[in-house]
Design goal:
The protein has 889 residues and is an alpha/beta fold. Strands 14-24-23-16-17-18-19-15 form an eight-stranded mixed beta sheet. It has an eight-stranded parallel beta barrel with strand order 26-27-28-29-30-31-32-33, surrounded by six helices. The chain has a five-stranded antiparallel beta sheet with strand order 1-2-7-5-6, sandwiched between helices. α5 (130-148) runs parallel beside α7, α19 crosses α34 (869-888) and α20 packs parallel to α22 (594-619). The chain is elongated. The two termini are 35 Å apart. It binds adenosine-5'-diphosphate and magnesium ion (2 copies). Adenosine-5'-diphosphate binds at residues 41, 94, 96, 109, 111, 243, 245-246, 256, 281-282, 335, 337, 346-347.
Length: 889
């Protein structure tokens, strides 16, 4: 007989935290908490296998499920001393969905299930509080009506708002039992009108209805989309948790709350939480009432911290905090309810956190001895380091504070106000920086939050939708700035006598919660000590070298600051665009006369020499790989008439002749046209000038600093060994003549990009003439997939959506296809020359997933944009640790 149901609480725990796949995250952790002796209201988990069986059998439950459920329910009844459906003292339950990973789109929780016109009277009598009983009943109809029966929740909310208006009451807690009865009658009418059937009175029907709705929600469109986006197989299924109710809405000695064992925003080792007295379920996150802080030291004088209001339960909670953190060895996000001063735990899970908090918590926990250094390295998501590099407000800048909310997600953002997600997208698409301002946010606003620089809400706490989503996205967020009045109709916000319209400037500091008038300048962040500690640990375990793609002194400085071990790709083409240079470049291309070309190229030499010398100086002896000119010539052509005339004048040539030359040079497919080493072969003078500039700069900086500069000269777009031989020979001749002129010696390397399939396939031959390879995975992706990066935008997203490609191959390397060519290039290159240096310099060099692939094929280094260098260092360390683990296993 298959066991479909696992009990938890009141001394019988069939499950534990390790059974996540079977019991879902919520169910497994409820059992685990109960196992370690924490007060969890008893209940049971219907396994994910039931969900799978349900779908395999045409939406039918396994035959013996009902019997097992009746048994499990009987156990809960016994533990609680109550009976489900009993008219005198009814057992009420919650029905909660819970998949392996938390998943939006799944059914929301239904509380107070088991109430009907009879049992509500029983609850009123047994609790001695009829107001509470009727409040619970109307909550139940509202939740069940919207979540299970599919009635729009607005219908219920509108009726409640209207009733409150008529009664002149603001807060739900002010309504009397009789008034709730009135609301409830209206609710039932809504259900009857909307669904054509009366609200189900039989508790058994209610229970099976809710269970069916959870399983049904596993296949709803929202859940399906989410699974697709996150690679979650449909076969995983969801579990259902049925749990006896505890009540946070039974009076002033009751409460409900959400807390984190450490500050999820900064990672500081302080208890962090919010709660509401006399409230139930998700009141705290729903933004209906503004929650209060739990710790007294975090409260302002007008607030009512739990530490003071419910001291016993608060002290219990402190113990729980310690226990759970030591047990799970990670920061926990805990949901609890206090019923008549007694604490109950309803959920624990590893808490979502900002990048800064993830870093700090990992380092602190390793230093506290809770986890190892290796654990700490593995715990920080490399991509999240990007967020630490967020700007902050310029401390010297003038500012006028308008209001203060909660520091919900760090960083500083300045932009123009928009009051709807649509308006944000509109403005952002025109290149504006936008701040989304809402009373509170909901899932419909997520696209607007994404397009915004920052989000400001006037209601809700640190765990509100806005706060959680913004933290996850790395957007700045100030939440619950209650003194600001938002008027969506008028498209204005009013605060302290100021009225701002959509389109006016506003600045947020998500680190302090401050809201400033107008535009306050921001500056780049300073990195914390934790950051360098983690980087140091990462460096001590990684095998891959990390270099940067940099061509300006500024980029090179940034790269060094972030720990780059050299430059893996210096693109020389951007250097040609300087206003003092582009004229010479155009003359060089547009003339067919050798002398004029030589003159134009000669004019470029001192510029290039200075460019390279600056990089060599900054890199102080670290390797610098300089790629000779690569892009299609058309990028440099004089496009407009005025430009053409300028070139003609400088060359003393006829405009008409130049026009003809320009059309002769234009190509229909430039990315596969006259570019890369093909340019160097047609115009050897260009490469000769560049090689001379590199050599002279290297000699000069070596002399100046006393540190040998060993330049690496890289030839782009090589497809055959013969091409490389030709360019190599010409380059060596130039180097030799410079050395002779200066009577000097120089160590140098000449290598090539591997960025055409043919190059990878013939890498054994090419390696005979190359000192190093650098895989140019951007072009290699284009040429392997036959996919132009500039044109793929119109259909690539659809490919990923339909699962035709696992992800955008320009973001994360296509391991199966492009990756196979990289692997082949590595193997063939090393077969010819075992000590050939192998690197990669495409965008993939900063992508964690790609980096783990490069680790596995045994490259020597990755090279990425300067801001991704920390990401690459950490990702390389994680890849090395994973590789070690795999060897051990
Ligand atoms: P979610 O997955 O959205 O967090 P939960 O199943 O955790 O949904 O339920 C939301 C909230 O409902 C919980 O935080 C808790 O406050 C409340 N809740 C759930 N079950 C019970 C219960 N048995 N007794 C009291 N409150 C409950
Ligand atoms: Mg939910
Ligand atoms: Mg929850």
């Amino acid at each position: 007989m298959t066991k479909w149901i696992y009990s938890f609480g009141a001394g019988q725990n069939d499950g534990n935290a390790g059974m996540r796949n079977l019991l879902g995250g919520k169910g497994a952790n409820l059992a685990e908490m109960s196992n370690i002796g924490l007060p969890v209201p008893p209940g049971f988990t219907i396994t994910t296998e039931v969900c799978s069986a349900f779908y395999e059998n045409g939406r039918k439950y396994p035959d013996d499920l009902k019997a097992q459920l009746d048994d499990a329910m009987a156990r809960v009844e016994k533990a609680m001393g109550l009976r489900f459906g009993d008219a005198n003292a009814p057992l009420l339950v919650s029905v909660r969905s819970g998949a392996r990973v938390s998943m939006p789109g799944m059914m929301d929780t239904v509380l107070n299930l088991g109430l009907n016109d009879q049992t509500v009277e029983g609850l009123a009598r047994s609790s001695g509080d009829s107001r509470f009983a009727w409040d619970s009943y109307r909550r139940f109809i509202q939740m069940y009506g919207s979540v299970v029966l599919g009635v729009s929740h607005h219908r219920f909310e509108d009726l409640l708002e209207q009733t409150k208006r008529e009664l002149g009451k603001h807060d739900d807690t002010q309504l009397t039992a009789e008034e709730w009865q009135m609301v409830l009658k209206g609710y039932k009418d809504i259900v009857l009108n909307e669904t054509g059937t009366p609200f189900p009175e039989d508790p058994q029907d209610q229970l099976w209805g809710a269970i069916g709705a959870v399983f049904g929600s596993w296949m709803n469109p929202r859940a399906n989309t989410y699974r697709k986006l996150h690679d979650i197989p449909a076969s995983w299924g969801t579990a259902v948790n049925v749990q006896s109710m505890v009540f946070g809405n039974m009076g002033e000695d009751c409460a409900t709350g959400v807390c984190f064992t450490r500050d999820p925003s900064t990672g500081e080792n302080v208890f962090y939480g919010e709660y509401l007295i006399n409230a139930q379920g998700e009141d705290v996150v729903a933004g209906i009432r503004t929650p209060q802080p739990m710790a007294a030291e975090r409260a302002t004088p007008d607030q009512n911290p739990m530490e003071k209001a419910l001291p016993e339960a608060y002290q219990e909670m402190l113990k729980v905090r310690d226990l759970l953190e030591r047990h799970y060895k990670d920061m926990q996000d805990i949901e609890f309810t206090v019923q008549s001063n007694t604490l109950y735990l309803l959920q624990t899970r590893s808490g979502k956190r900002t990048a800064a908090a993830a870093l700090r918590i990992a380092i602190d926990m390793a230093q506290e001895g809770l986890i190892t250094k290796e654990d700490a390295i593995s715990r920080v998501p490399p991509a999240s380091l990007d967020q630490l590099l967020h700007p902050v407000l310029d401390p010297k800048a003038e500012r006028k504070q308008l209001a203060r909310g909660l520091p919900a997600s760090p960083g500083a953002a300045t932009g123009v106000i928009a009051f709807s997600a649509e308006d944000v997208e509109d403005r952002a698409s025109k290149g504006e920086d936008v701040i989304l301002v809402r009373i509170e946010t909901s899932p419909e606003d997520v696209h607007g939050m994404h397009a915004a620089r920052g989000v400001l809400t006037t209601r809700g706490g640190m765990t509100s939708h806005a706060a959680v989503v913004a933290r996850g996205m790395g957007r700045v967020c100030v939440a619950g700035a209650g003194s600001i009045m938002v008027d969506y109709k008028a498209q204005t916000l009013t605060v302290n006598g100021h009225t701002l319209k959509a389109g006016d400037w506003l600045t947020l500091d998500g680190g302090t919660g401050a809201v400033y008038l107008g535009r306050v300048p921001t500056i780049p962040p300073t990195l914390s000590g934790d950051f360098s500690t983690l980087m140091g640990w990462a460096d001590s375990v990684r095998r891959l070298g990390v270099r940067a793609n940099a061509e300006t002194p500024e980029d090179a400085e940034t790269a060094r600051r972030f720990g780059a071990e050299g430059i893996g790709l210096c693109r020389t083409e951007h250097m040609f665009f300087g206003p003092d240079r582009i004229g010479h470049v155009r003359q060089m291309i547009m003339t067919e006369e050798k002398d004029a070309r030589a003159k134009a190229i000669g004019a470029l030499l001192p510029f290039q020499r200075d460019d390279f010398a600056a990089l060599f100086r900054i890199m102080a002896g670290l390797p610098v790989t300089i790629r000779l000119l690569d892009p299609p010539l058309h990028e440099f052509l004089p496009h407009g008439e005025a430009e053409l005339k300028d070139v003609a004048k400088a060359l003393g040539q006829d405009v008409e002749a130049l026009r003809a030359r320009r059309s002769a040079l234009s190509e229909s497919n430039p990315m596969l046209g006259h570019r890369g080493c093909r340019l160097g072969i047609s115009y050897p003078e260009i490469y000769a000038m560049q090689v001379r500039a590199i050599t002279e700069a290297a000699l000069a900086v070596s002399k100046e600093t006393g540190k040998a500069v060993i330049p690496e000269i890289m030839i782009p777009l090589v497809g055959t060994k013969a091409e490389l031989d030709l360019v190599r020979k010409a380059s060596e001749a130039v180097i030799a003549s410079v050395l002779k002129e200066q009577n000097a010696t120089l160590d140098y390397h000449i290598g090539t990009m591997i960025e055409l399939p043919r190059a990878a396939i013939t890498a054994d031959k090419i390696a005979e003439s190359a000192d190093f390879f650098s895989f140019g995975t951007n072009d290699l992706t284009q040429t392997t997939l036959g996919l132009s990066r500039d044109d793929a935008g119109s259909f690539l997203p659809e490919y990923v959506e339909k699962g035709l490609l696992p992800q955008d191959p320009f973001i994360s390397i296509d391991q199966e296809g492009v990756g196979a060519l990289v692997r082949m290039g590595v193997e063939k290159g090393r077969a010819t020359k075992p000590d050939i240096k192998l690197g990669i310099c495409g965008e993939h060099g900063g992508d964690p997933l790609s980096i783990s692939f490069f680790e596995s094929v045994g490259l020597d280094y990755v090279s990425c944009s300067p801001f991704r260098v920390p990401v690459a260092r950490l990702a390389s360390a994680q890849a090395a640790l994973a590789a070690r683990k795999a060897v051990k296993a």
